[in-house]
Amino acid sequence: MNPSPKPYILSVDDDPLTLKIVARLLTGQGMEVVCHQDFRQALEEIRRQKPSLILLDVLMPGMNGYEFCGQLQKDPQTSDIPVIFLTSLDTEQDQARAFAAGAADYLSKPIQGPILLKKIHAHLRMNHQWQVLPGGGTDPEEEMDLSKFSAFKEALARELKLSEEMKNRIFSLPASQFFSLPSEVGITPKQMAMKMANFLKLPYLPLVDPAEILLGILPRGFCRNYSVIPVRGKRSKYAFVLANPFNLELADALKKFTRQSTPLEILITEKRNIEILLGENGTEGFRRSPKCGPGPGAGDPSDCESNPPVFSGDQGYRENHPIISLTNALLESAVNERASDIHIEPKERETVVRLRVDGDMSDFWTLEKETGAKLVSRMKALAAMDITERRKPQDGSVDAVILKKRYKLRLATASTPGGE
């Protein structure tokens, strides 16, 4: 525990002038500030006394800020410390990397005092609210709403007309194993999530739009332990996307956190979708299809079949960049649904993603228009298309490893009144 009644802020930057400005600004607001110019000293300081909040630069000698933040996230003792990146890097890609590493917020230099103070006070208040959240160390069986969970198992057994042997098996499974059951009873994880949503009369969400995620609202470790993502609510300030809606401890913690007397706004999705957004076990990789056959620049046919070059068009991106996570989740969902085609169709105010399954095309998801445009750009980059060309039709292909299986994806673009 921090022995000081004042907020204790750790500022890490290799620029002495920045450290001086930050220290003067925050001490003038009654905060205790400790400054360090390298990460080794900062780690020693954190071990000595846990700060209330960390201000962190990205570009520093040795380890960079993303790696340092990632180290903090791996340690349960430090994963709940709010980290605000304060850096000269200001592109959307840089911000995405910061959030993917576990940062609570991101501010670009030069420092604007009022904005920095507003952010710090907001995250200190949020950090205080985090104290009501459990650490996730209790037995999953003790956390479950057993009456609803048992009723759902009964309904599932009746609907699927399970044998007595399989019915006994699903009733004997602990909660930790139940959600890996779908393949044994002949349904997909998506179908299981949809059945839970239908049983509880809650909305089902096939994918989580990165534009809707409320970053820095919940500690990353908590989100990982309980498979939960905070998003913008339609009826309230916050909504929560869950993989296990029967977890009583989670529901109680979220009510305390939001301080809501009204029912929480809950949506259901597969655990896999949440894991991808948290950067865990994402799609394993993409490979650009090389030129094969005769002609200049053609590769050896055997190379085309078994050793395509690793796609390297994602310089500076991480696998848990929001748009990469969205792309991975969409491709995995298409594989699980056995879809033959994915259509990304821009409309006037939104983008509709559609899947063709067994010859029938149906709406799968609706994205914000800007998110849809970024998804199209991501797909074009994978297939080595010209992402700046949006009027002329283009074709390309890419080899992808999705859910441990290899696929060849063929991509084509066309210009429409709503966009590409």
List keywords for this structure.
single chain, 420 residues, alpha/beta, Rossmann fold, Beta-Lactamase, 5-stranded parallel beta sheet, 3-stranded mixed beta sheet, 14 strands
Structure in words:
The protein is an alpha/beta fold. It folds into three domains: 8-130, Response regulator (Rossmann fold, 3-Layer(aba) Sandwich), CATH 3.40.50; 137-270, no CATH class; 285-413, 2-Layer Sandwich (Beta-Lactamase), CATH 3.30.450. It has 16 helices and 14 strands. The strands form four sheets. It has a five-stranded parallel sheet with strand order 2-1-3-4-5, sandwiched between helices. A three-stranded mixed sheet has the order 6-7-8. A hairpin with a 2-residue loop joins strand 13 and strand 14. Helix 7 (146-160) runs antiparallel to helix 8. It is globular. The N and C termini lie far apart (54 Å).
Q: Distance between termini?
A: 54 Å
Strand content: 15-25%
Mean pLDDT: 78
The total of helices stands at 16
Query: What is the global morphology?
Result: globular
Number of strands: 14
How are strands sequenced across the largest beta sheet? 2-1-3-4-5
pLDDT < 50 stretches: 281-320
What's the story with the biggest beta sheet?
5 strands, parallel
Share in helix: 25-40%
